[in-house]
Amino acid sequence: KKKKKFSIKIGKLTPTEQPISLRKGDTLILHRKAIVGQRAIYDDSGQIVQPAHVSCQAEEIFSSVTPGERMFFDDGNILTKVEQVSPDEIHAVVMRTKPNGGKLKAEKGINLPDTILKLEGLTEKDKQDLKFIVEHADIVNASFINTEKDVRQLFRTLADLNCPEDFGIILKIETYRGLINLPRIMLEAMQRKNIGVMLARGDLAVECGWENLAVIQEEVLRLCEAAHVPLVWATQVLEDLAKQGKPTRAEISDVSLASRAECIMLNKGPYIIKTIRVLDKVIQSMQKHRKKRSPMLPEFSDQYRFRVD
Question: What's residue 106's pLDDT?
Answer without folding.
Answer: 77
